[in-house]
Amino acid sequence: MIGVDKVEDIRKRGRRGETVASISRETGVSEPTVRKYLRAQDLSPEPPRSRAPGSEVLAPYEGTVDAWLDDDRGNWRKQRHTAVRVYARLRDELGHAGSYSTVQRYVKRRREEMAEERDRRDAQGYLQLEWLPGECQVDFGEADFRVRGVLTRGKYLTVTFPHSNVGLTQVFWGETSECVCQGLRNVFEFVGGVPRRAVFDNATGVGGRLGPEVRLSELFRRFAAHYGLDLTFTNPYSGNEKGNVENKVGCHRRNLFVPVPSFSDVLAFNARLLRDCLDLSEGKRHYRLGTPELELFDEDREALSPLPPAAFSCVRWETRRCDKQGAFTLGGVHRYSAGPAYARREVAVALGAFDVAVCDCETGEAVASYERRWGEAPTDSSDPTLQLRLLCMRPAGWRDSSVRGSLPAELVSFLDAEPAGRLHADLRVLRDESAERGWAAAAGGMPGTVRATGSTDRASVAVSAARAQAGDERVEYDEAGDLGVYDRAPGVLEGGEGDADDQLGA
User: Fold this and answer.
1) The sheet that has 366-371: what strands, in order across it?
2) 229: domain CATH number?
3) Which of 47, 166, 449, 459 is the most exposed place for a label (fewest CB within 10 A)?
4) What stretches of 129-257 show up as alpha helix (H) in DSSP?
5) Is residue 478 one of the residues assigned to a domain?
């Protein structure tokens, strides 16, 4: 199996019309393999498979070997690691018990991949500032969105075509490689083709930058090879190379996200957003050329390469071992369940921009799917707050909701008796307090408020939830005192008859 960079080089040469024989000679890959990758219609990532016995032993040390080989590039060529030296260090310093042949094959492959990456970067040359039809710039922006009633800080991927000054934007909750791939795929399918060249402001979401070097993520390398996308990255601190996309990021925030957009389905919102972006260019002339932007955008579209027959699957596969309850975590704080049947077993997890799919490692069968959670706050796929946001948008589903079954019986009885308008308000209070203090505190404190006041006003629930969060089980209000003393107070202050202490009930 050859690396993704080699596959990309083969497909790029094929698009230029080179013969199979010449591609084989130039790349050092056999002709049958060249034909295989020229004919391949789908380069989407595949679910993880079991490693060969030798490579599985080496897997924990691959990062260390990569670091040694990276450091070698700054050393004199006669003082660099050989495969023998790598094997000796792994054995003596880290206790590696694998064979020398496995280490030798890995070192050889990684050196070839590193050399190909350097050659590809050198071939890119300097960044042109004359933008041709069909070329684009890509960058992220940040804005607030109200999702199912909750204010959420989100990201948006903006793709601009400097030739026409048309920009297209898609909203996400992160800047990962799967978000970048999904955003670009949405744009490609909307405009009906693949740009001739994509220029990125930095490596965020598609890899990492180490000094002047950009290392692409495996998913994005596959994406670029699948679509035949040529990539370049702007130089650090070179604002003149990325001005168009930076301006468009601000333009879209001001014109598309003010006031704060409110929606319940981000996929439907993104579909509308692409059309809204084009509407911004309606009747507008290019700032420098004076030609209508949409007329120039037709030239952009004509210069695009055709879409491949198969759409790329924008998911990153990982393997996770479930705990004794059949659950696993992603990102350290987000908990998902594969079910009790997978307790202490491994599952294959497909991470998309908006969804998480859980599959059986052996059969590949889908086990469960969830909306992907983001942020640093812990979440649980079984947490009722995930359904509470949607319930606030559709309170008619209260009777059959999982939220109802998760609340104390006393509170359920109260909410069942509420009229529709009041129930909607009560659920919003529960939603907001859950977001502020957590589900356990809000659900545990709310019954005390109902017993003390007969209502669920936000201020009273906040007090009860705060006490529950602090571990105070007395979430009920203290016994009410005699409020009549406040009615008698004006008379005392005016010098009325009788002893002041007697009048105030002291």
Assistant:
1) 316-321, 346-351, 355-360, 366-371
2) 3.30.420.10
3) 459
4) 177-191, 218-227, 243-256
5) no
Neighbours of 241 (CB within 10 A): 19
Phi, psi of 95, deg, nearest 5: 75, 25
279 plus 163 within the same structural domain: yes
494 located within any domain: no
Model confidence over 56-110: pLDDT tens digits? 788 888 888 887 887 776 666 667 889 999 999 999 888 888 889 889 999 998 8
From CA 483, how far away is CA 112, in angstroms rounded? 84
296 and 147, same structural domain?
yes
Tell me the two tokens of residue 275.
Answer: 């059309």
For residues 224 and 43, the answer to whether their CB atoms sit within 8 Å is no
Spatial distance between the Cα atoms of 192 and 383, rounded to a whole number of angstroms = 40
DSSP summary character for residue 393: H
Name the residue type at position 17.
Answer: G
- Are residues 187 and 283 located together in one domain of the fold? yes
Instruction: Give the C-alpha separation, 107 to 67, whole Å.
Output: 12
Dmax over CA atoms of the chain, in Å, equals 114
Q: State which amino acid sits at residue 117.
A: E
Residue with tokens 């201020």: 459
Q: Do 255 and 263 form a contact (C-beta atoms < 8 A)?
A: no
Q: What is the pTM of this model?
A: 0.61
130 within a domain of the structure (yes/no): no
Task: Read off the amino acid at residue 9.
Answer: D
Angle between helix 218-227 and helix 4-15 axes, rounded to 10 deg: 10
Average pLDDT over residues 389-400: 80
Length of the chain, in residues:
506
List, for residues 301-331, the tens digit of each pLDDT value. 999 999 999 999 999 999 999 998 889 999 8
| Per-residue pLDDT, 432 | 87
For residues 346 and 51, what is the distance between their CA atoms, to the nearest angstrom?
14
Domain range for residue 351? 316-380
Confidence of residue 160 (pLDDT cuts 50, 70, 90): very high
Verify that 197 and 267 share a domain, yes or no: yes
Distance CA 212, CA 232 (A): 12
Determine, yes or no, domain membership for 506.
no
Q: How many domains does the chain have?
A: 4
pLDDT of 119 reads 62
Q: Which amino acid, 119?
A: D
292: three-class secondary structure by DSSP: strand
